[in-house]
Amino acid sequence: MHTEERTFVAIKPDGVKRGCVGEIISRFEKKGYKLIGMKMLQVTEEIAAKHYEEHINKPFYPNLVKYITSGPIIAMVFQGYKAVQGIRHLLGATDPCEADVGSIRADYAQLKEYNTIHGSDSVESAEREIAIYFKPEELCTNYKNMMELVTEDIDEGE
Ligand code: UDP
Ligand code: MG
Asked: Which atom of ligand 1 lies nearest, measured to the CA of 68?
């Protein structure tokens, strides 16, 4: 039986300012991930500190806060099979120069400091990050997408 995971994704301020929101979301939709939560918001220094708590003592942290608070972001939750790993793969490596050709960071960004998009790196991080940005009642789980319908048909035979 296949079970779905949830992951947190954010289009960072540069992606919003350059008008890349629709194109980026469509990549996740095409892959079949379910969009179960979405909001546009301005990240404050407090939210940034929660989101990036593992990086607070790193030399790049002050600049990271400046970047992530420089304009609105699009915060999203996607659900799907191996969604955490799958979405990290669609994002590409942190440094867009090293990201696989065709990945979002390779296609939309140049510098690792300003890499356009965030995705959770583990199921545990995803749970923690989703809770920072969304209340449980803001997530919509009562619908099926094509991928779920397909796997249900196949799983019946197992
Ligand atoms: N970052 C940076 N300089 C670095 C490493 C990271 O400015 O040397 C920024 C970059 O925006 C990155 C974020 O900090 O996306 C979080 O870093 P992490 O290593 O967790 O990368 P990610 O999980 O986003 O790939
Ligand atoms: Mg990270």
From this structure: 11
- Full DSSP string of 125-143: HHHHHHHHH--GGG-----
Residue nearest to atom 10 of ligand 1 (CA): 113
How many angstroms is it from 118 CA to the middle of ligand 2?
A: 8
pLDDT in tens, 11-21: 999 999 999 99
Q: What is the pLDDT of residues 22-33, one digit of tens each?
A: 999 999 999 999
pTM: 0.96
CA gyration radius, the chain = 16
Is the Cα torsion angle 112, 118, 121, 124 positive or negative in sign?
A: positive
Pairing mode of beta strands 117-119, 34-42: unpaired
All residues with CB under 5 Å from ion ligand 2: 121
| Helical packing angle, 21-31 and 83-91, nearest 10° | 140
